[in-house]
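tool_call: predict_structure(chain=1)
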Amino acid sequence: MGRHLALVGATGAVGQEFLRVLEQRNFPFDQFTLLASKRSAGKTATFKGQTYTIQELTEESFTGVDVALFSAGGSISRTYAPAAARAGAVVVDNSSAFRMDPETPLVVPEVNPQDISRHKGIIANPNCSTIIMVVPVWPLHRLCPIERLVVSTYQAASGAGYQAMLELEEQTREALAGRPITPKVLPHRMAFNLFSHNSAINETGYNEEELKMVHETRKMFHEENIQIAATCVRVPVLRAHSESINIRFSRPVTEQEVREALASAPGVRIVDDRTANYFPMPIESSDGDDIFVGRIRQDISQPDGHGIEMFISGDQLRKGAALNAVQIAELL
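tool_result:
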C-alpha cells in the first residue's frame, strides 16, 4: 500500500511554497492529489517534472489519502479537515482553525515533536510569527526558564498572501513614479510605510496576531505562566518576517550561554558580527530554512543580569508556514 499525499490550496503563495519544499526535501509519496476551490479546479501545476490537474475540493476528496496538507484558510479547514480525518487521513493544517483546540496538537518540530503522537486526525501548524520566534527562544527556555518575553515584529507582505506581495511591488512603482496609491489588499499603503498588523483588535487593545503569539507559545511550551507581550507591525518587505525579542530569565544568564545554546540549536543560524555591523536581514533569510539570530546582548535595563535582547529573521513562507508543516508530515 503506497503513501497518498494530498495538498489543499495549491494555488496560493503558501501552497506554491509547499510544492517547492516537498520537491526540495524529496518527500516520499506514491500518489499525489492537488485540491482547491471550484474556481481553481481544472488548472494544472507542475511538480517533480510531472503535470497535475487540480481537482475540486469536496468532502469526498480524501478517500485513500494518508496525509493531507491544508493551506487554504480557516473556513476551508473547519469544513474539510474533519472530513479528511474521518476518511482516515492525518491533516496538517496551516490555518488558525484548530490551533487553540485542546484536542489538537500545535507543533513546531524543533520545540515539541512529542505532541504529534497525541493527534486525533488533525495537527495544527502555528502562526508564522510564533514559529519564527519559538525556534530560537525554545533552546533558551531549556537553558533557563523564561519568565517574560517582549516581542516587536516586522512582518513582510508575504504574510498576507501572494496578492499582497504583488501589491507592494505595484505600489513601489507607483510611488517612485509619483502616481497616487490606492490600497486594495491591505488596508493601508505599504510602499515606503509601515503600519500596525491588519488583524482585529479586541477590548485589551491587542490584535489577533499579537494574541496568537501569546497563546500559541504558551501551548507549545506547556507553560501557562510565561508572560508575553507582542506588538505586530507590517513593513514594506516582500518575504521573511523579523522580530526584536527581549527576554527575562528566571536567573542571570550571560551572552556566552545564549550563544552556546543557539549554536547547537536546530533550525537556527547565528548572524552576529558587531565589528561589521552585520546582523539578520530579511533579504538574506528569504528562501532559507533557518531562523537567523543576531544582536545578542545583555539587556542593560536589567542590572540583575536576567535580561537578554536579540533580533531575528526568518522566511514566513518557508519555516513560518510550508516547511514547518512538511517537517510535521515527515515526522508522521
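agent: The chain has a mean pLDDT of 96. Proceeding to next step.
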